[in-house]
């Protein structure tokens, strides 16, 4: 169960006339709270602010988001040491029609829920992923940000019921690998890594940004560019990243298998050293 | 104000955990109630059912939709002779994550509001439209249906504040004319009409379908195909259609003006004869 808060007050419902309901007019962030602190907080704030600017919504100040989050945590029964905080920013209530009020004021909702910890083995052995048939549409105006329009991900997630499959990877309409339904993807090729550019579609994940920063600091070549899906079939290893689980090696996608190699171990170690505690050291 | 109902009971709010709020996981129809009857009802029902099937949601039976609508009307203060009924079908409540429950059960909400009648003059003189910069992304899986993911329309509608501009027309990424933010479009060329195919993006409007049926019955050539925007600049006339206002001639888009010609008059007359009473006879 998720416990929701608005301005520190618990609530279960939202007005049906809210533009989040009617049009998906808003954005969200899913923040991992670890040791009582929101992890990769600056990255979440920056993506949310970028998203608000892109959608023409009033940009919440970092302090306002911090206040919203801490007052929710204070009022919650959820373990505030380790949980998931969903920040939902909606364009708010408005009369019928696509047109917004000129002021673009937003409503900030905080949803707290328990953190689902993955078994330690998957960080060592890796996960199974699949390639989804649902394609990501090219829409540069929405690429990178995390809007409430998520039907492509919902449709992709509908494609499998096999509990052994952890994630689905998605392509754009030109057979480029973009990201997973809930994760970003890195391909390992020798001593370098590549992650797909998120310029036409897809979500630019905070953990992807963190990994890219760690790679740069460690002097490892981490390239951001267009990636044809064929590159995945011939690469040495695949990693997926997400704000909650950190990074996971991929052991199989369809008929293709990968071994967890030295570079994967090195990146998992870099993450562990940076405080992404889900990684077994 | 919109008055909302679920299973005949008035309500103002929806659970924040509803998938309509979190992901825009659902569909809607905006039905014109005229003379106490839902206009073009079969077309609305069919599009909604098509949409549910496409999204993998349980398809509501026509009788269930009729019941939902009539119980809402019975409980409402809104003038039931002439109003707007928004039918919102949501994927309902679910735990966090893109994955749906396997049963795909839906929630049906009915929102009734007053009908905004346009001045009669616009049906004769036409309206001013603009060409939006926001493009419609190519996503065949969502094309034609009316989902709750409407950020492209919201962004397009943000492009203008000039009250004189009635509607914005939208292109896809290959400079094809697709539809307006809230309407479909017909181009008149001599004795024939063409309306863009809605196969890659856009919404397939009920009034568009009604006009195409009327054209076929009247023996007028009405083609449905890809339309390059350049065709609009050289055509003899433009019409936009929508469930609420019926059909309106376009008198200007940017620097280009059109006169209301014989074919426009003929189509407006066909609509009036078919009971689309907004058209002055």
Notes on the structure:
2 copies of one chain form a homodimer. With 281 residues, chain A is α+β, with helices and mostly antiparallel strands. Chain A folds into 2 domains: 3-114, D-amino Acid Aminotransferase, Chain A, domain 1 (2-Layer Sandwich), CATH 3.30.470.10; 120-273, D-amino Acid Aminotransferase, Chain A, domain 2. The first copy, chain A, contains 8 helices and 16 strands. Chain A has helices at 19-23, 41-55, 62-74, 120-125, 151-157, 206-218, 229-234, 262-273; strands at residues 3-6, 9-10, 13-15, 26-34, 37-38, 82-90, 107-114, 127-131, 165-171, 177-180, 184-189, 192-196, 221-225, 237-242, 246-253, 256-257. In chain A, the strands form 2 sheets. In chain A, strands 8, 9, 10, 11, 12, 13, 14, 15 and 16 form a 9-stranded mixed β-sheet that branches. In chain A, strands 2-1-7-6-4-5 form a 6-stranded antiparallel β-sheet. Chains A and B meet through strand 3, helix 1, strand 6, strand 7 and helix 5 of A and strand 3, helix 1, strand 6, strand 7 and helix 5 of B.
Question: How are helices and strands ordered from N to C of chain A?
Answer: EEEHEEHHEEHEHEEEEHEHEEEH
Quaternary organization: homodimer
Structural class of chain A: alpha+beta
The largest sheet of chain A is:
9 strands, mixed
Give the CATH topology of the largest domain in chain A: D-amino Acid Aminotransferase, Chain A, domain 2
Biggest interface between protein chains, with counts per chain? Answer: A-B, 57 and 57 residues
Count of extended strands of chain A: 16
Count of domains of chain A: 2
Show unreliable segments of chain A.
none
């Amino acid at each position: 169960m998720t416990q929701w808060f608005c301005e520190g007050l618990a609530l279960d419902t939202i007005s049906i006339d809210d533009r989040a309901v009617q049009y998906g007019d808003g954005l969200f962030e899913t923040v991992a709270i670890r040791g009582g602190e929101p992890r990769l907080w600056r990255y979440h704030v920056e993506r949310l602010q970028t998203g608000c600017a892109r959608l023409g919504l009033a940009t919440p100040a970092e302090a306002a988001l911090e206040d919203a989050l801490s007052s929710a945590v204070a009022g919650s029964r959820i373990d505030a040491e380790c949980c998931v905080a969903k920040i939902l920013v909606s364009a708010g209530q408005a009369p019928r029609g696509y047109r917004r009020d000129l002021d673009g004021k937003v409503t900030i909702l905080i949803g707290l829920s328990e953190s689902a910890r993955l078994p330690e083995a998957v960080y060592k052995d890796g996960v199974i992923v699949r390639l989804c048939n649902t394609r990501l549409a090219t829409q540069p105006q929405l690429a990178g940000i995390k809007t409430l329009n998520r039907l492509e991900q919902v449709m992709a997630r509908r494609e499998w019921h096999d509990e052994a499959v952890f994630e689905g990877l998605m392509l754009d309409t030109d057979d480029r690998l973009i990201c997973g339904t809930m994760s970003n993807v890195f391909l390992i090729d020798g001593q370098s890594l590549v992650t797909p550019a998120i310029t036409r579609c897809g979500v630019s994940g905070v953990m992807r940004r963190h990994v890219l920063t760690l790679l740069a600091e460690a002097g490892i070549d981490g390239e951001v560019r267009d990636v044809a899906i064929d590159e995945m079939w011939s690469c040495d290893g695949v990693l997926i990243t997400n704000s909650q689980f950190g990074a996971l090696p991929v052991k199989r996608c369809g008929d293709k298998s990968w071994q967890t190699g030295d570079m994967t171990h090195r990146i998992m170690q870099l993450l562990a050293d940076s405080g992404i505690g889900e990684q077994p050291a």
